[in-house]
């Protein structure tokens, strides 16, 4: 036990409360569309931002002061774990997520790294059994250490590639042992700074073979969870190969993995790629690869990945609308890949950030469920494309040729006039729910 969260009680659902540390909209037991809200949303806390991040930014160092700093020993790793599970008990969310580098020191060589990770996994197992908190997903940090400066699976050095393969094996073993429901791969440095020293074909082949090995190992150990890729267009690399959902799906198709791997989609990364969050979710659903989400937001003035807690209910509602329309989460969930601001120093700030985010998500989710049950958007969409249900038009799409269609246009004197897309009316419709 630590004293970091002393004096902070478990957060309760109390819509009449004026406390910063009460849920006003997130009622885990509320039934929405036939299922408990907790089971729909499947909230998770990100270990890295909540406990490993020290409050630095590109222009300044650590601002936080935590009982588990410096994060360089197994003793302090266990103090950090104690604090983490205390916070999980306060929030009552069902899941958490971690990178290997978040939870234990790396050591001086791979053998020491492996021992440290296995020791903390055993410690986690005891705490998970005692508290009931589960693991949504685990992953490997293969972007922070200087050895990854030229990438991980795409690194030009075969020894780095081998180190990464051994690291992912260890992290998959850890995730499987803890009953994790997914395993995530984020290629933070799987990209390039300049084409002057980059062989794109070689690096793409390395990445494809690496992912095939990950899938093979998943099947060998009987891991029941999903393998997920998290796309991002840039930062830290100038250009990252997993740019967006479309790019990743093309990659999966090339290496025969489209039936094996799904997506972990982050709101902030979607914005950096020039898309909306709901666009990326809709594309993943269309391809059948929607897995899980990282919920956060960017500062639209900063232009980089600021990882702030979500606070925009209409944006969140549109995201959950796409998720619900696709059938909802199975192994995935809502991970708060979000961190405090550098000036938010207190333990209460860490709790309040998550409380507010869970309430925003609950409000957006309930609005999305109401819209889906009302059916207004789907009715309008169906009406817009209704012409394609007519037998002649179906035949044109399925078996028509340019010649046959041209003959029909002449014979039937087809001279179409534009039809309204009714965008403003649909935007007004959404505002009735949020």
UniProtKB/TrEMBL annotation:
Keyword Cytoplasm found: yes
Active site feature: 99, 102
Catalytic activity of the protein: alpha-D-xylose = alpha-D-xylulofuranose
Location in the cell: Cytoplasm
Lineage top rank: taxon: Bacteria
Gene3D superfamilies per the UniProt record, alphabetical: Divalent-metal-dependent TIM barrel enzymes (3.20.20.150)
Cofactor note: Binds 2 magnesium ions per subunit.
Residue ranges crossing the lipid bilayer per the database entry: none
Binding of Mg(2+) 1, residues: 230, 266, 294, 337
Cofactor list: Mg(2+)
Main location: cytoplasm
Family statement drawn from the similarity comment of this UniProt entry: Belongs to the xylose isomerase family.
Name of this chain's protein: Xylose isomerase
Protein's organism: Aliiruegeria haliotis
Gene: xylA
């Amino acid at each position: 036990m630590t004293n970091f969260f002393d004096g902070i009680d478990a957060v309760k659902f109390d819509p009449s409360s004026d406390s910063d540390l009460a849920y006003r909209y997130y009622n885990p037991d509320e039934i929405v569309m036939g299922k408990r809200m907790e089971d729909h949303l499947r909230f998770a806390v990100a270990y890295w931002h909540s406990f490993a991040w020290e409050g630095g930014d590109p222009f300044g160092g650590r601002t936080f002061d935590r009982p588990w700093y410096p994060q360089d020993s197994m003793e302090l790793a266990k103090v950090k774990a104690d604090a983490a599970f205390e916070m999980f008990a306060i929030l009552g969310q069902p899941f958490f997520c971690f990178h290997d580098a978040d939870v234990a020191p790396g050591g001086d060589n791979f053998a020491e790294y492996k021992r440290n990770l296995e020791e903390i996994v055993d410690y986690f197992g005891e705490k998970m059994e005692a508290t009931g908190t589960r693991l949504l997903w685990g992953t490997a940090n293969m972007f922070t250490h200087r050895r990854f400066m030229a990438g991980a699976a795409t690194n030009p050095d075969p020894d780095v590639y081998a180190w990464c393969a051994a690291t992912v094996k260890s992290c998959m073993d850890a995730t499987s042992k803890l009953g994790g429901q997914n395993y995530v791969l984020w290629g933070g440095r799987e990209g390039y700074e300049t084409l002057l020293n980059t062989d794109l074909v070689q690096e793409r082949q390395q990445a494809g073979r690496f992912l095939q090995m990950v899938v093979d190992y998943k099947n060998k150990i009987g891991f029941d969870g999903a393998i997920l890729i998290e796309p991002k267009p840039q930062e830290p690399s100038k250009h990252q190969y997993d740019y967006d959902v479309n790019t990743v799906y093309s990659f999966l198709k090339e290496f025969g993995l489209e039936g094996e791997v799904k997506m972990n989609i982050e709101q902030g990364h979607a914005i950096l790629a020039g898309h909306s969050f709901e666009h990326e979710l809709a594309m993943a659903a269309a391809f059948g690869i929607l897995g899980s989400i990282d919920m956060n937001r960017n500062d639209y003035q900063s232009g980089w990945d600021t990882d702030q807690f979500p606070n925009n209910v209409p944006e969140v509602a549109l995201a959950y609308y796409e998720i619900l329309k696709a059938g909802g989460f199975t192994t995935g969930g809502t991970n708060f890949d979000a961190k405090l601001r550098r000036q938010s120093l207190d333990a209460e700030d860490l709790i309040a950030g998550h409380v507010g985010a869970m309430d925003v998500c609950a409000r957006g989710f309930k609005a999305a469920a109401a819209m889906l049950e009302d059916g207004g958007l789907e009715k309008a969409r169906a009406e817009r494309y209704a012409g394609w249900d007519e037998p002649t038009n179906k035949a044109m799409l399925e078996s028509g040729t340019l010649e046959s269609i041209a003959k029909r246009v002449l014979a039937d004197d087809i001279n179409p006039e534009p039809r309204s897309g009714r965008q403003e009316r649909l935007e007004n419709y959404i505002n009735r729910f949020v």
